[in-house]
Design brief:
- By secondary structure, this protein is mainly alpha-helical.
- The protein has two domains: 3-65; 79-142, no CATH class.
- It is built from five helices and no strands.
- It has helices at 3-28, 43-65, 79-99, 101-113, 121-142.
- Helix 3 runs antiparallel to helix 4.
Length: 153
């Protein structure tokens, strides 16, 4: 891959992250933000939107600074990645509804990991197990999200 191609990816990826972050901020502004002591329902999405927008802007700027010209390349969609990621989102909703947070998180990460052709089954399982542990610590223990860890039906 030439440096021009990676720069185009930085420009497009950073721009997409910037747009999604700004959209998230706009939508979060519809809710009450609150304060640091009394966070409202829009506080967390607004924080994530700002972080995503700033990160996207930095990636976009770095892509623009090092890109002398835009290459002409034929873009081919990565259908496997799209399919795995979209399927993982649906799997989280369905599995989370019937079996709980931990099985939903494990299956979501496992399915999404297969979007990358380089991942092996062992690597995908290890990644899913680690992310499930992170989910347990962050969402259930620290944030105390009211989502059962396990349930049946």
């Amino acid at each position: 891959m030439t440096s021009n191609q990676s720069n185009l990816k930085d420009i497009l990826g950073g721009g997409l992250m910037l747009v999604i972050g700004l959209g998230t901020c706009w939508q979060a502004a519809q809710y009450e933000l609150g304060s640091l002591q009394q966070m409202g329902p829009g506080f967390f999405p607004m924080s994530l939107g700002v972080i995503l927008a700033v990160t996207g802007l930095l990636i976009l700027i770095s892509g623009l600074r090092t890109a002398p010209e835009m290459p002409r390349m034929k873009w081919q969609p990565q259908w496997r990645g799209w399919l795995c990621i979209c399927t993982s989102l649906v799997a989280f909703v369905v599995i989370g509804n019937f079996f709980g947070l931990l099985p939903a998180t494990f299956s979501t990460v496992l399915i999404a990991a297969f979007g990358d052709r380089k991942n092996s089954l062992a690597a995908a399982i290890i990644l899913a197990a680690c992310m499930t542990l992170v989910c347990l610590i962050v969402f259930w223990w620290l944030l105390q999200v009211q989502f059962p860890l396990f349930k049946w039906g």
